[in-house]
Design a protein that fits this description.
This protein folds into three domains: 42 residues, no CATH class; 93 residues, Type II secretion system (T2SS), domain F (Receptor-associated Protein), CATH 1.20.81; 243 residues, Receptor-associated Protein, CATH 1.20.81. It has 15 helices and three strands. A three-stranded antiparallel beta sheet has the order 1-3-2, covered by helices on one side. It starts with a strand and ends with a helix.
C-alpha cells in the first residue's frame, strides 16, 4: 500500500490517471478545492508473468463489440472492460489499452502497441472504422472472420484427436509385446528347446534389435529432427520444404485450398471495410504462410498494381484452380468482388472440412489395420512356435 499526492482537476480525472498508471485505488481524498488529491493506491495485482497472445484477440473484440453496440464509446468500453473482465490476462490487456487511450491515442494506435495480439490487418481495419464512423460494423466483420478461422482450427484439432489416440494405443500395445511379453516368451521357448519357426525368429530379432538399439535410434532421430527443424527455419530450408509439401498427395491440395480460403476471407473483409485494393492485396499477402504460394501471390499483386485484373494475375501464377479464376472474373466484371470472395470462402470452407474428414477416416483406418495386423502377426508367431515346439517332443 502506498500513499501519494496527485494533482487533478476532479476526483474522476484523478481516478482515470491512476487507472492509466495501472494502480488500483483503495481510497481517494480531496485535500482542498485547489490542492492536490491524496490517493491511497495499491499496485495492480496483474502478475508479471502474464503473456498476451493471438488467443486474446477474438474475446476482446467480442466484448468490445457488445459494449460498443449498446451505444458506449470505444474508449469508455475499454475502460469498463479493464475493471469488469474476469480473465486476468484479458483484463490486464484492457488496462494497458486504456492507458494508451487515456493519453489521447485512438483505439487503432493503442491496438498497434500490442502486435502479439492484434495483427496489422486488425489495426488497419479498426483505423478505417474510426475514420468512417463504422467501427461497429468493422468489429462485427472482424469477429465473423476470426470466428470462422477459429471454427476451422477446432475442426482440424477435433478431427486429428481420434487418430492420435489410436496411434498412442497402438504404440503402447506394440511396446508392451516387445518389452514385456516377448522376452518372457522367448525364455520359455528356449528352455523347451527345438527350432523356432521363421515368423517367431523375425519377431524375436525385431524385439532384440529394438531393446538393444532402441535408445540409440531414438536419440539419432531426435538429433536429426532438431537439425531438420533448424534448417527448416532458414529461408532456403523453408522454401524447399514448402515446395516439397505441394507435391505430397494429400498435403498439396490441402495447402492450396487453405491458402484460397485464407485469401478469400481476408481480402473480402478488407474490401468490405473500405480498404483500397492495393493495400488490401498487400495485407492479404502478409497473412499467407506458405512461402511458395506467398511469392506467387506477391507477383500477382505486382501485376494488379500495374493495371492487370486480379483474376488474370492469379491465373498466371498457376496455383489457383480455373473455377476460382472464373468466379473472381465474374465478380470483377459485375463490381461484386467482395461478395464473390465470400461465396468462394464458404465453398472452400466446406471443401476443407470434407478433406479433413476424408483424411482422418483414411488415417484412422490405416493405423487400426497396422495395429491389428501387427498383433495378428505376433499372435501367429507365438501360436506357431508353441505348436512347433510341442510337436518336437516325442512321447
Amino acid at each position: 500500500m502506498l500513499q501519494a499526492n496527485l494533482e487533478a482537476v476532479s476526483r474522476k480525472e484523478a481516478a482515470r490517471i491512476l487507472a492509466a498508471r495501472q494502480l488500483q485505488v483503495t481510497s481517494l481524498t480531496e485535500i482542498s478545492g485547489s490542492a492536490p488529491l491524496t490517493a491511497s493506491a495499491a499496485p495492480s495485482q496483474r502478475p508479471a508473468t502474464l503473456v498476451f497472445s493471438r488467443q486474446h484477440r477474438l474475446p476482446f473484440l467480442q466484448a468490445l463489440s457488445d459494449l460498443n453496440g449498446s451505444g458506449m464509446p470505444a474508449g469508455e468500453a475499454v475502460r469498463l472492460l479493464s475493471l469488469r473482465l474476469k480473465d486476468p490476462a484479458l483484463r490486464a490487456l484492457c488496462v494497458q489499452l486504456w492507458a494508451g487511450l487515456s493519453e489521447g491515442l485512438p483505439l487503432s494506435r493503442a491496438l498497434e502497441s500490442h502486435p502479439e495480439v492484434f495483427d496489422l490487418q486488425t489495426v488497419n481495419l479498426v483505423s478505417a472504422g474510426e475514420a468512417t464512423g463504422n467501427l461497429r460494423e468493422v468489429l462485427l466483420r472482424l469477429i465473423q472472420h476470426f470466428t470462422e478461422q477459429k471454427a476451422l482450427r477446432q475442426k482440424l484439432t477435433t478431427a486429428l484427436a481420434y487418430p492420435a489416440f489410436i496411434c498412442v494405443v497402438a504404440l503402447g500395445l506394440i511396446l508392451f509385446f516387445i518389452f514385456y511379453l516377448l522376452p518372457r516368451l522367448q525364455m520359455l521357448l528356449t528352455s523347451l528347446g527345438g527350432k523356432l519357426p521363421l515368423s517367431t525368429r523375425i519377431l524375436v530379432g525385431l524385439s532384440h534389435f529394438i531393446v538393444t538399439y532402441g535408445l540409440l535410434l531414438a536419440a539419432a532421430l531426435a538429433v536429426g529432427a532438431v537439425f531438420f527443424w533448424r534448417w527448416q527455419q532458414r529461408p532456403i530450408g523453408r522454401a524447399a520444404v514448402d515446395q516439397w509439401l505441394l507435391r505430397v498427395p494429400f498435403a498439396g491440395p490441402f495447402l492450396i485450398n487453405s491458402t484460397i480460403l485464407n485469401f478469400s476471407q481476408t481480402l473480402a473483409v478488407l474490401l468490405e471495410n473500405g480498404v483500397t485494393t492495393a493495400e488490401a492485396l498487400r495485407m492479404t499477402e502478409r497473412t499467407l504462410t506458405h512461402t511458395t504460394l506467398q511469392r506467387a501471390f506477391h507477383d500477382a499483386t505486382d501485376r494488379v498494381l500495374e493495371g492487370e485484373s486480379l483474376s488474370l494475375s492469379l491465373h498466371k501464377t498457376g496455383c489457383f484452380p480455373d473455377l476460382v479464376i472464373d468466379q473472381l472474373s465474374v465478380g470483377e466484371s459485375t463490381g461484386n468482388l467482395a461478395p464473390s470472395l465470400r461465396d468462394l470462402a464458404r465453398n472452400y470452407q466446406q471443401t476443407i472440412t470434407n478433406q479433413i474428414q476424408a483424411f482422418t477416416t483414411i488415417f484412422s483406418s490405416a493405423v487400426l489395420l497396422f495395429a491389428f495386423g501387427f498383433v495378428a502377426f505376433i499372435a501367429y508367431a507365438i501360436v506357431s512356435a508353441v505348436f512347433q515346439v510341442s510337436a518336437s517332443f516325442k512321447f
